[in-house]
Amino acid sequence: MREKTYSTTFHGSIIDKTLLAANIGTWQINFPDRELIWSEFLMDIFETGKDFKPDLSTCLDFFEGEKNRALIAAAITAVIEQGKDFCETCPIVTLKGNKKWLLITGSKAEVNEDAMACIYGIMQDVTESRSLAEMDKLENRILELYEKQELSVNEILSEYLKGMEFLYPEIYGSIHYIQDGCLLRCAAPSLPDSYLDVINKHPIGENIGSCGTAAYLKKPVFVNDIARAREWEGYAHLPLAAGYKACWSYPVIDSDNNVIAVLGMYYKEVQQPGNKKLVIIERAVKLLQLILESALKKDQLQNANEIMYQVQDLAKFGNWQWNMETNEVHWSHTLYNIYGVDARSYTPDLENYLAALHEADRQDVINTLRQIQQTGDETLFEHRIVRPDGAIRYLRCWARLFNNNPDAPSKMIGASLDITETKLAEMRLKSLYEQQVLHVQKIELQNRKLHEITWIQSHLVRAPLARIMAIADFFKNVPAGETEENGLLAAINESCLELDGILGTIIDKSEQIELNQKNEAQ
User: Fold this and answer.
1) pLDDT single digits (tens) 298-336
2) With DSSP H G I counted as helix, E B as strand and the rest as coil, what are the percentages for the chain, rounded to 5?
3) How far apart are CA 45 and CA 102, in angstroms?
4) Which pLDDT value is given to residue 212?
5) 75-89 pLDDT per residue, tens
6) Residue 209 parent element (H or E)
7) What are the backbone angles phi and psi of residue 180, rounded to the nearest 5°?
8) H helix count then E strand count, the chain
9) Which stretches does DSSP call E strand in 362-442?
């Protein structure tokens, strides 16, 4: 008998420990007086204290919302009247105001065929597993919001904190970016603006609040009592005035070991972090790292693309890819501008590309593309295109095979530079050069004619003038007879005629030069 009593006591102890480990308490309602009996652990679940005397009415009051209270009351009635077992999961609000989730079962216990002695069941605290499941749903919803990009990153993270605060009402969350060594407000849906405005853009550093210290040291900082914490010396009045007594902060560190943000969890009661809450915080930090680092890299990529697009637009330079298996062609947006077509309606396939080529250049380009496919060599070539409006553009192109499969490369990549202005400038320069050559040749011809005129003036004109001058001097100084005078007059007449002919030649050459200058001016 003693051994049986010991065995029963031992197994009862094992069962109690098992139920305690599983967060399970038992309950029973005796009939006909409907007395409610709780196990001791249920008092811990409902946070009532050991002296609490439960009854069915007060027990139902713990369930959150009329809908849940009605659900449990109906389930108990169904057990009483129909002997129908039930199993439900509902939220409760404990006597201390904390929200928990309970798994509740109920069954009947019959004494005989006509009477029911009691109904009994268990209540299991499934808050942790329920919270983890709800966290999974919340995180999936946040990731979907981020994927859709319908909201800004700040708005998405604010939704995340709201969801966490709904699951864990004692938490007041905040997220701050770390930018240029300062805290920069990101999301904090429940913290007062008066507090957030003070810490916004505040430098991080050791012992500058929980978040500032965590970001500076690159490690979690758990302040259980702000009023007594070294990290809050000189700053404690700020959160205390807002009603916050504890703050746990966790840095968000990217893959390059840079602190990009800090997560803060504020509490209105002095408390220490438990393992369950640390698991939740670590999950939140991992999600923040994923979203923030992705957003940061996306911004960097977008900025780089915008700079590239600007450079391409300024340089009139566009790149392209041609999948030779599917005949799909992808252009950068600058190429559409170069070709003068609308990206929304134009299909940049090989057929349209060849159709846009200048007729005189089309076959040369086809031959060049075939040569690249055969040899795989990088190739530079030039050609003209004709825009839909008839304008002709000159392009300098580069192309090569993309050897992702050396045995059968299926893609060609390349780039095109609009060199129309350069080409037209070269043509204008060439035309100016040719005109200059002709002009120089004309000047040289005119110079030769002027040289001839100068030579005539300096040599041919001088001879008859000298003779005339000598005859005139002779008349002036030497008396002469009639015969001599006739001879001298004949010489003078001959010299004058010679001089007149020379002057006529000079006039003709001068008029020819003047005529050439007029023709050039026209």
Assistant:
1) 766 565 555 555 555 555 678 888 888 888 888 888 888
2) 55, 20, 25
3) 9
4) 95
5) 988 988 888 899 999
6) helix 209-217
7) 55, 40
8) 16, 15
9) 379-386, 392-402, 411-418
